[in-house]
Protein 1
Amino acid sequence: MSQQFVSAEGADPRCEELKAALKLVSVYSHQINNQVTVIVGNSELVYDLLPPHTPAQERLEEIVRSARRIASVTQKLLSVKIPE
């Protein structure tokens, strides 16, 4: 076993702190992803109700693009594996 993760007292406290931080990242990423899903879904519904090629429709397109970028980031955070 690697010396960097094991000390005389057991697991390295830094490793335990990292695990705890990764768990928090996972929890918050899920919460953010849930809210982004609501933003994208509702924005797409409103977008379809607006007349085409209007400033409001263009703004909604930007909202959806931004929300999808946030979703992409949260998916990357969720893909980080927490060590056992």
Protein 2
Amino acid sequence: MLEGADRSGLPGGLVATDWTWDARVGAWRADAIVYAAVVERLRRSGCNVEDRVPQWEPIRWPRADLLELRAEQREAVDAWRRTGRGCVVMPTGTGKTEVALAIMASAAASTLVVAPVRDLMYQWHRRILQRLGYDAGIIGDSAFRVRPVSVTTYDSAYIHMERLGDRFGLVVFDECHHLPGPLRRDAARMSAAPMRLGLTATPQRSDGRQVDLDWLVGPIVFDMPLAKARGKTLADYEVIRIPIHLAPEEQARYENLSRQVRAFVAERRRDQPGYAWEDLCAETGKTPQARRAMKAFHAKKAIEDRAQEKLRVLEDLFRLHAAEPCLVFTGSNAMARDVSRRFLIPCLLSHCGKKERIEVLEGLERGDYPALVCNRVLDEGVDLPEVKVAIVLGGTASGRQAKQRLGRVLRKSRKARAVLYEIVSTDTTEEHRSRRRRDSDAFDRTRRRRF
């Protein structure tokens, strides 16, 4: 809020489009995100300013037990320090967290770390305690313990940022590709923090909103391609695509359901030529015909996800890698449970509690479990035990999800080579999704193999 200026104009060359006149209090208002730019303009113009916004404070870390940074990590830190704002793009497993901790240590300011899920929030809490000796506050998961250095989730951040926006001089957005969503962006928009750091391996979004990261956090200041890390910082790897066929009865039902969906859409397009997926979703609550079409669509996708041949190939792959821990990624919770029951391995889904997840991951690390199956819960960010075999049974068309899943097995250890298998149902829309998610330099040498 800018007091002392009347409605006739803004002082100090401030940009009028950033401001709104609030007749209730007779003052100008702007989003907190413009705070740093506003202060800079006012000071340059010579205005006499009393700044009552910042409630953040300097931090004295109990210790700084940081790992020695590699050359590319030091380059990322130096690039960010030049402006104090911006995104660092590095492949999964190359040490983005260590980059952030080094920046936090040198900034020595009140810091809020924002993570996409609770697991990552607690992981950040452990890392800060381990490396900087600071017991950070926790905002989220039914806790609201705010300290000068705190960790939170995106959902908690945008809900509480109206109370937190003036308390942190540095905000770290982990997996910052989540930030430009229509609600989560408020976590950045309502924060006055002049220093902002975004971390991600995959900034691209299917809706194109990654361009908003420039003003929400700052431009990309460091971008490390996967090819630069492959075989050096990260393990060398290969991607093997295994096509499978639906069983005759599965294929017959799949084609019948496809015809139902196509017939409904074709009928609607006679009256509405631009009828699209969004229109079908909106109509499902209004007409029984749309509901039947939507049920047919989901039943069709379930056949792709849960094809019986996938389980047979998965069994062969388990035999091939009998002495190695494996990660299995599915396209649905139902398929994850199918795999868990069939092979008697743990299944991690989004509703699993923190204690259960820790026990399962530690069991995989100890060798108690030969494999672990999940849907999306381990797609990004979470530190995993050393695993060099990943098997993808399904997923979205997102290239970001594909690269994140590949990154789960790329942490380098000795000279071990990683491998990612992708099992795809042929003559289905899953083939199209597979092609789209492999449209990346990370998958440019994919091999095809039959089992």
Protein 3
Amino acid sequence: MAGLILIVDDLSLNRTVLCGKLASACYRTITANGGAAALRLLHEHRPDLVLLDYHMPDMDGLAVCQAMRADPVTRDIPVILFSANSNHEHRLGALAAGADDFMSKPLDETYLLGRIRSLLRNVARHNEWRDHPNTALQTGLAESAAPFIRNPRMSIVTGHAGTRQGWLSSMAAIWPEARLDDITVPAALGLDDPRQAPDLFVITPDAMARSGLHVIAELRSRTATRHAEICLILPPDNRADAAMALDLGAADILMLPLDRAEARLRLEKAVAQKLRSDAQRRTLENQLGLAAFDPLTGLHNRSHGLAKLAHLVGQTECGVALLLIDLDRFKSINDRHGHNAGDEILRQVAHRMRQDLRHDDILCRYGGEEFLLAMPEASLSEARQVAERLCARIGDLPYTVPGSEKPLHVTASVGISLHGHAQAPVQTDELQRLIEASDAALRCAKQSGRNRVVSAQSVTA
């Protein structure tokens, strides 16, 4: 569905003209003839963007914008403030009040539509996080990003050596706390690690003269730089290039001659947007990581462990040893000392077993007190040696746990199976057979006295 835009202007002719322009671009519109009506419609319709006149008799646009930013319901709705008076005080006041842009009348249609498209893309991205079924991702959405602005890293993209120092000095005057460096277009496009990318690229006119607007699309398309924000410095009234730059992915445009206060506000908004997106991505990565691990032991959980094992058996050509490790008589520990004691033993057992892992081994919690260890490229003798070391690590030292006055002794039994066809890939459908073979060997170890290692080969021999 097309974006819904609220047009706020006390003159009906202005509202009608804007409605026509936006309708021709397939946007839906609603209108308000004053600030109070606008605030009411904001709550009733939740528009995606607001076009707001600065001068209105009942409540000026500045007050409306400030009220929106103070209200959690409307705080994140983009606002473009416009006025017939484009002096410094009006522009600065609008941006300081939280407007995403300030435009002077008569509105340049090309730039206006480009700015709307840019802001609505941000709205769509924000809504994807807001509506995500994982509620942890929404943690930062209810808070303003402004308090979290740190001293950003900004790379000034210049066209030739003679202009670099001048641009660095100009940007240092605008944001003295920022960490500044200069970079050429080829160097920026040559970055191959996201950690090398700045929070913000500021592209100068001489860089644009050499490389053209396509540099924005190139930065946006590359893995190392696609999450960095981009601002352009353009000559005055170059609205056509400004609109195209916004369509290609620029966050904002700085017009020459640079006004320090206005440029600082625009750069801060771009950095705040970048930091918020970074925080949301980190939250998602953390949540995905938690989904792969058992929260008690810190090991891979069963589903993730089996997925990694399925991938492993489809890749290796040198055999896989599969060990099922089960703690002996573990139910009696829970019955006598409580589940807190049992949980503590499981944590300590997992910690002890980690000490015998190789880099490529896969260890997961398979069930209550049962663990699975996959060892790629391991022979039967190597797997047996590891299994016996694990039994010793688990059983040789007692466990101090809550609910027990005396240290507890725990032992483990291990069943081993092996895909032993050297240089022949393990077929994925063999995975279940390997697990069943290890399980049969484990049952044999239990039946023959516990605290021992049994291989499937010896069971079938």
Protein 4
Amino acid sequence: MPVTVQILPDYNLVYVRFWGVLRVEETAAALAAFARNPQCRPGQRHLVDLTRLTDIERNYPKLMELEASKVEMLAGTGIETFMVYLANTPIGRRATNMGRNGWPPECGVVAIGLENEDDALFALGLPFRSIADMLAHSTAINT
């Protein structure tokens, strides 16, 4: 599956990494596994790494369903969620725009897109210079 989701409870962070082709079914399965994980909590910050994404499945009706399920799962808890999309390629930036635009203003999710790993970690208030460093110093729970 070209998507992994790791919960880093020490940092109240969910790290999502995509690579290859973003496929709706695989992404939905990863989202469902995350939602079932006992460490899944409202208000966790999210770092969505799209730097290794090469394409997006062009099944737009299914993508819209996926976006709706994201909103249902993460929004409406009354607790704000901060989400950083990290993308440094045209396809990654396209996925970022799709992801950011999927959050209605009233849902309580604040989503930004950044192109630099250091900036993304800084925006999340994390004391690391790289994602590799963050993962090396974290206890990750895979979903």
